[in-house]
Specification:
Elements lengths: L1 E3 L13 E3 L8 H21 L3 H16 L3 E7 L7 E4 L5 H4 L12 H14 L3 E8 L5 E9 L7 H40 L3 E7 L5 E6 L2 H6 L3 H6 L2 H4 L4 H17 L3 E8 L5 E12 L5 E9 L1 H20 L1
Antiparallel strand pairs: 1-2, 3-4, 3-6, 5-6, 7-8, 7-11, 9-10, 10-11
Length: 325
Amino acid sequence: MLVRETIATAPGSPVATTVQAGDRPTTDGRDRLEILLQAQNEVLEHIVAGTDPTVMLGRIADVLGSLLAPAHGLLLWCAGDSSDRVRVAPTEPPRPIAELGSSWSRESTGLESSLEELQRLCAAAGLATARRLIHSHAGELVAAIVLVGSRPLQLDRAEQYALEILSLLARSVIEAERRRAALRSATEQFAALAKTIPGVIYQRVVKPDGSIRYTYISDAAKDLFGVEPAEIIADPQALFDCHGPEYYATFRERLLAASRSLSIWDVEATIITRDGKRKYTHALARPHRLADGSVVWDGVILDATRIKEAELAAAAAETRTRTAI
């Protein structure tokens, strides 16, 4: 009997190998389902926790090996960076793969070329292979499961279903990691841009219950207020304590009123830094309301000390002149 890998993770996924029947031990259907469910729960928990994808894909490769023994399972995936580097799980290759020696690079470039080279080397070593291509939702080839054994392998319906589930899990891991990488890159770019802007960039959230918190504040807060950004994000009172007496007395009610009306925040204020220096600021922010009623403020706090001091000095000079006259 010939069994062809017909289940695809995305339309148009090519089938690389036909595998033939062969005697091998089987896993009880209930045990197989339990292993799959356990692996699925573990992987989903790891995705939420932001675990290194190599760990998660290694776990999937281990499950492959336990369900499809005596075949060995490999999971090849693209790192998704500019190098197009291919990584392999598990990190310690099964013995038949290890015996291929250094002729197969485990850190090669290009997933398709790496798959072709692996298949060629396995064939030369007398090893049977079958592969399952994994595509992203956008149709990009992001990974492949490769089964390697000393004899051709027959996959029954339940094993093909297991392969389907593990392929979907692998795709979820890879796409989650790529989203995180894109977010990290965007965050780093924004942080770099924020350093070039003269002032403190921030995002503030006012909840429907009136609570206030900062979800982002740039490193410039340390220079302007003498307070670490992490302190402000953990407890906004660390920033409020720097407000001058008059500003402190009216800040909360002014902010809540502006949040209700979605008015532009354009406020000049006096602050006292932690080391006792008096400074003057000019804050500008634009609000938008979320579905839950919260109001998000994206804004900047400018150091207006030199301008304000110049204005005060000019006013004082004018007063002295009038007095002299």
